[in-house]
Amino acid sequence: METRLTESEIQPSARVAAAAAAARPVTFSDTVGLFMPAAGKATASGVLFVSPWGLEEMCMRKFWRVVADALAGQGMASLRFDYPGTGDALDRNDYAGGLSIWEDCVVEAAQALRRQSGCRNVIVVSQGLGSALAVRVADRIEGLTAIACLAPVTSGRAFLREMQIWSRMVDEGLGVPEDHRLRDGVGIAGLRMPDEIAADLRKLSLTGLPHRPAPRALVVKRADRPADTEFSAQLTAMGVDVREADYTGYDEFISNPAISTMPDDIRKVVLDWIGSVAAALPSEAPLPVERHASEASLLGPDFRETPVNFGDGGRLYGMLCEPLGPRSGATVVILGTAYDRHAGWGRSSVMMARNLAAAGVASLRFDGANIGDSPPVPGVPDQVLYQDSQIDDVRAALDFLARRDLTPVVVSGRCSGGYLTFKSAVADQRVSGAIAVNPFVFHWQQGRDIDESLRYMPRSLDVYREKMFQTETFRRLLEGRVDIRRAIGNMGRAFWRRVARKATPVLQMLPGSGGEYAEVRKSFQSLAERKMPLYLLYSENDVGFEHFAEHFGPKGQGLRRFSNAHLSIVPEADHNFTPAPARRAYLNALIDMARRFPPGE
Q1: What percent of the chain has pLDDT over 90?
Q2: Which residue from 76, 217, 234, 541 puts its CA 20 to 30 A from 183's CA?
Q3: Which among 58, 542, 578 is positioned nearest to 343, based on CA atoms?
């Protein structure tokens, strides 16, 4: 089941003609897989990626894509996919089947890989919880030749305990209000695991496996997890040809998608091992490939979602979500935040899109170049955030929607996605309206270190004042979990921003005042002249509001000169708009904005 582009949708421009195509989306069993065919002559081996769950999966997304692209160059096709109720997959009303629902999906994904590629040999590459699932269903995967287990979960109970601690750390780091943190069940970063699956997971153990999962295995071990070494020893005792490697850079890799450092050494280890496995197998031609003409869309109760490739040469990947009934407003382009995949933080973009469809509003969510499942554009810096090149991706989305007769279009995004929302609206007059949520800035100063800003972004002065006298802060200080020098520096920057905010009205009146202030005024003025509605949503005490106040005052009084712009402060919301009330406020604003523009207008 494939989504194919027409020739009119594949017209390379001079700027991005050399960009590689994104993986080809396929649907099966109420979920979405991304199939990357072999480049040139295909071998008889194919690779199935089996992902971890939660925040770890968000950090792994780009890594899988990079490895898949490299495998294609070696003549090996691959497939990566979402479990039911995760990523872009449909949600179920009933999870009574427990962990077997995800296990069955692994088996069905392997079948889809064989159908699409014709591979005779299946090599599984897995991480975390995905390793446990793959090992448990190994005997059901036809043609399984080898399995790689990166940081494998060998005890479900231990995994859930670790997840609980990790979840608290994430909520604390984001500043999620106590009343809106997960009190029961298993969840992290706005994601909640179905209770039935969590119940089965508590009983999971890979100790005493009944049979060897595959003839060959790669185990990438974490230095502080003896269970990884014990699992490797168990496989060796069962007659498996095991290669071991140390998981260097694991913590830096899976802690936060925005600042994740890809473990290049592990990428090389995995690719080298896959190559050695494939070379040891008999040289055979792939099987004939089956072609299926079934509809590629996923159907929900009131929406239809179609995975699509678009842009020059199909370089971008995203999900088009349309209402089953008539459209009631403009199509919304949901722009991603930092390096979160297009499903959004805590699947917020997925749920937003489906709720919009229930209100009659279509939407497109996608990964920009070099983010998630979309490959990079040659010649563009690896760090794509706050770069003008991202506006090209938005223009490609506008082109795609125009060809599908899904205009007019409004754009929306949060944090760096809010910045891109604003800059895209200024750059392209096809944007009819925009909603920017917690944009960090409206103008990025040339020469500013983006990586440094992402890794050590200061909070507002009010937040520092509030946390200074909390018991948890003193505990973290005593345990050495606070970089005191960095914290003092951030508080100093927050203080001087507050001082600058008070001086800004005077500075702006000085003759020849320019720089950032002039650039921001010019951009807001251009939107006002077009009478393009602009909504700005901020959470209380968000660091982005400090920058807003530098330009428009602490209560936004300077915004009154622009009649098209409206400011809203959303209470009890963290920077990521994790709590349900914050997400509802955002959704309502999107519906209101979209309905300003009748379809086809």
Answers
A1: 72
A2: 541
A3: 58
Taking residue 234's Cβ as centre, other Cβ atoms within 10 Å add up to 18
Written as six digits, the tokens of 435 are 């909603």
Query: Is residue 399 located within the same domain as residue 333?
Result: yes
Residue 175 is classified by DSSP as T
Q: Which amino acid is located at 306 in the chain?
A: T
β-bridge partners, 23: none
Cα torsion 92, 62, 245, 35 to 10°: value is 60
Examine the domain organization and report whether 269 and 305 are in the same domain: no
DSSP-H helix ranges across 380-436: 389-403, 416-427
pLDDT of amino acid 503: 52
The answer to which of 102-116, 127-141, 298-312, 488-502 has the lowest mean pLDDT is: 488-502
Distance CA 349, CA 338 (A): 13
Q: Is the dihedral of CA 4, 9, 11, 17 positive or negative?
A: negative
| Region 14-41 average pLDDT | 86
Closest CA relative to residue 522, chosen from 508, 536, 510, 533: 508
Q: What CA–CA distance (Å, rounded) separates 272 from 248?
A: 16
pLDDT at 436: 98
Strand order in the sheet with 24-28: 24-28, 31-36, 77-81, 45-50, 121-127, 144-150, 216-221, 241-246
CA atoms in the 13 A half-sphere facing the CB of 535: 25
Looking at the fold, whether 256 and 345 belong to one and the same domain comes out as no
Rounded CA gap, 76 and 37, in Å?
7
In a domain, 368, yes or no: yes
Gap between the Cα atoms of 366 and 369, Å rounded: 10
Helix axes 389-403, 416-427, angle to 10 degrees: 70
Choose among 211, 249, 204: nearest CA to 227.
204
Tell me: do 264 and 317 sit in the same domain: no
Ramachandran assignment for 522, one of left (phi > 0), alpha (psi -120 to 50 degrees), beta (any other)? alpha
Cα of first residue to Cα of last residue in the chain, in angstroms, is 33
Q: Which residues pair with 481 in a beta bridge?
A: none
Residues 129 and 57 in one domain: yes
* Separation of alpha carbons 335 and 367, rounded Å: 8
C-alpha neighbours within 13 Å on the C-beta side of residue 345: 26
* 439 and 559 fall within a common domain: yes
Q: How many domains does the chain have?
A: 2
Of 596, 586, 587, 582, nearest in space to 531 by CA: 596
CATH number at residue 452: 3.40.50.1820
Based on the domain organization, do 408 and 532 belong to the same domain?
yes
357, amino acid identity: A
Q: What is the pLDDT of residue 483?
A: 52
Residue 19 counted as domain residue: no
Q: Do 329 and 455 share a structural domain?
A: yes
Q: Within 13 Å and on the Cβ side, how many CA atoms surround 161?
A: 5
Q: Which of 300, 397, 308, 367 is nearest to 25 (CA)?
A: 308
**pLDDT classification of 256: cutoffs 50, 70, 90:** confident
Q: Are strands 186-188 and 191-193 parallel, antiparallel or unpaired?
A: antiparallel
Angle between helix 543-552 and helix 515-529 axes, rounded to 10 deg: 80
Residue 322, domain extent: 298-460+512-594
Distance between CA atoms of 441 and 445, rounded to whole angstroms?
A: 9
